């Protein structure tokens, strides 16, 4: 094959990757952005903040840090849906403001809508809507000012929070104060018990979070991923962990007869620890595309048992979705 010749590699089941072959001894493949179209996964729907704020008026807002979108978060959304139209109130830029070390999210931003949509079956056939507010805009609010903002600026009808929820400047407010202030401002409040982790054999000393009491948490999800325990991850999430790679122009991946290796720089969210993971699959849309084995290495993510012997075109893929079996 001639160097720099463009072709489309067909991955068994329907995925087509636009590539350019750069040499014959070792196949190094690069993607062209002109060959890719947007999929239904979104990074930003472009809705102005004012539009988001007006949409939440009269709704029931679940409060928390919704990093992993785990079963505890889902329970908050379920309670919100029982009382009205459910929303999740998330804060952006918290890590930057508080000086936290940057880290990959558990759920890729472009995948959050899919996860929330999957909760609709538990939420009266209504998918919760995520509302994002810049953390820097609320960081210095007292508990009273925060509730006042929910009431007067957002116009929410009610809030849902866990028993261990803290809010306000330096987390000075607790769930009982939230209930008291909500009553004062005419907002319904629903305080629910946390969803407890069934795996209580893990000692709390494994976690640095002072609020750790054995409940399901994003911290526990991250711990399970760091241990490579995908069954435990699935139990905490209520679904299989989905790893998403972006297919950007100018980046390369290598291939051989048994599979493809992608650089970790392509990852949009947190992978499990280094190791070999069986019973995985590449997913496109709502259907299975290809059963595969995933090898997480120091610098690469390798997909094995992928057929690369048929040529089609043109391609239409921006993301590669990989689900890990339990």
From TrEMBL:
GO cellular component, one term: chloroplast
EC code: 2.7.7.2
Top-rank lineage group of the source organism: Eukaryota
Pathway: Cofactor biosynthesis; FAD biosynthesis; FAD from FMN: step 1/1
Gene3D superfamilies (alphabetical): HUPs (3.40.50.620)
SUPFAM superfamilies: Nucleotidylyl transferase (SSF52374)
Domain FAD synthetase: 136-203
A molecular function GO annotation: ATP binding
Protein name, per record: FAD synthase
Originating organism: Centaurea solstitialis (yellow star-thistle)
């Amino acid at each position: 094959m001639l160097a720099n010749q463009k072709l489309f590699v067909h991955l068994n089941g329907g995925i087509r990757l636009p590539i350019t072959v750069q040499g014959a001894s070792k196949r190094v493949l690069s993607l062209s952005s002109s060959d890719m179209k947007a999929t239904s996964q979104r990074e930003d729907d472009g809705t102005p903040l004012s539009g988001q704020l007006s949409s939440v008026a009269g709704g029931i807002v679940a409060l928390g840090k919704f990093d992993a979108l785990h079963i505890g978060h889902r329970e908050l959304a379920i309670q919100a849906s029982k009382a009205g139209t459910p929303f999740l109130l998330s804060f952006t830029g918290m890590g930057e403001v508080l000086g936290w070390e940057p880290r990959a999210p558990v759920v890729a931003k472009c995948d959050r809508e899919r996860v929330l949509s999957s909760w609709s079956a538990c939420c009266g056939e209504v998918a919760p809507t995520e509302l994002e507010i810049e953390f820097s805009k609320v960081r210095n609010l007292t508990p009273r000012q925060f509730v006042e903002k929910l009431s007067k600026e957002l116009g929410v009808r009610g809030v849902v929070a866990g028993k261990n929820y803290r809010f306000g400047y330096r987390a000075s407010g607790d769930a009982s104060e939230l209930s008291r202030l909500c009553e004062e401002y005419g907002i319904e409040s629903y305080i629910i018990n946390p969803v407890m982790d069934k795996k209580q054999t893990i000692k709390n000393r494994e976690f640095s979070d002072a609020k750790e009491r054995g409940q399901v948490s994003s911290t526990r999800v991250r711990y399970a991923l760091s241990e490579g325990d995908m069954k435990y991850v699935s139990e905490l999430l209520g679904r299989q962990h989905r790893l998403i790679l972006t297919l950007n122009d100018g980046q390369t991946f290598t291939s051989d007869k048994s599979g493809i290796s992608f650089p970790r720089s392509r990852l949009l969210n947190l992978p499990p620890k280094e190791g070999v993971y069986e019973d995985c699959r590449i997913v496109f849309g709502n259907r299975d595309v290809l059963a595969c084995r995933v090898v997480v290495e120091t610098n690469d993510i390798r997909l094995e048992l992928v057929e690369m012997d048929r040529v089609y075109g043109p391609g239409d893929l921006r993301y590669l979705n990989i689900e890990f079996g339990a």
